[in-house]
Amino acid sequence: MWQQLHGVMGLWLLLAVGLALLSGVLRSARFKGWLGERLVRRWLAQGLDPQHYHALHDLTLRLPDGSTTQIDHVVVSVHGVFVLETKHLQGWIFGAERQQEWTQTFYRHRVRFQNPLRQNWRHLKALETLLDVPLAHLHSVVVLTGTAQFKTAMPAQVVQGAAVVPYVRSFNAQLLAPEAVQRILQQLDAQRLAPTRATHRAHVAQLRQRHARAEGASPASTPVPATVPATATATAPAAALRPPRPLADTVEAAIPGRTEPVLHPEPVPTTPQATEPCPRCAAPLVARSVSRDDGAWLHFWRCQRFPECRHMQPRTAQVLPLEE
What is the DSSP string of 259-304? Predict the structure, then answer.
């Protein structure tokens, strides 16, 4: 009798432990992110014609400085390159297009998180540089896959659930030739890292190191950005631009007719042209810049024959002082 009772109690204990573990997994941020990306992948596969829309998922790309950036989904078509950021959220969402942070309210619990439009803006800038594609041909899309509801005006680039399909199909203007579409697909396939757990862990560790460095910087060690005097005249040097600032401080306006935020001009290097040609093919080197995930600008030289020649080398951006 007691042996049977102990056996039943053991089964119930194992069942309770298993349910607790399953509940923890289902509530984890990693599982929610995986579920949201799977939903978006299914919607794109069912709603977009694969002959005209080419979807790539879980892209981890390496930047010229050796760091990485991770993009949930990229859809390439003659109508442009759609860069999708997935967020699996619940509750009420409060946020505007150009706010630095949004707020998620679930019952009485409030959480502030980074504006995903700003996060996706860095992805667009990285693709603009790596693919040599004009920014006007890149479309930013944030897809909410959970049950979250906006309690403020939902930005135009944010869509809910399966509405991502009609949103992508609403772009009718032809921006890219079929040959350019194939070139972009080949570049992404050649530059992406293998979508493995090791790649994901390395990218997450890199992000944590950057955030730790950013949080550890004291106010005294952070340079205060100078401002251009209101009495500046046309005689001021063209290179007298403001020093680099964190990305969170540079998104301030929107381009007329577009919803992407505008970044202030990056610092202008004192050497606009490379003194030496490309060591591989002897073609001229052109100056390129891209913003990293931590908001800092990365400056480098790239071969003018890119993507035929993929030579890149770092360069130092020396910012000219401002005239008071």
Answer: -SEEPPPPPPPS--S-SS--TTT-PPEEEEEEE-TTS-EEEEEEET
Residue 293 CA to residue 69 CA, distance in Å, equals 7
| Residues contacting 17, CB < 8 A, separation 6+ | none
Place of tokens 């993929």: 310
Whole-model pTM? 0.60
Contacts for 103-110 with beta carbons within 8 Å, 24 or more apart? 104/148, 105/151
At 55, the pLDDT band (50, 70, 90 cuts) reads: very high
Q: What type of residue is 19?
A: L
Cα 272 to Cα 267: distance, rounded to the nearest angstrom: 11
In this prediction, residue 240 carries a pLDDT of: 35
Contact 109, 101 (CB under 8 A): no
CA distance 105 to 236: 49
pLDDT for residue 168: 96
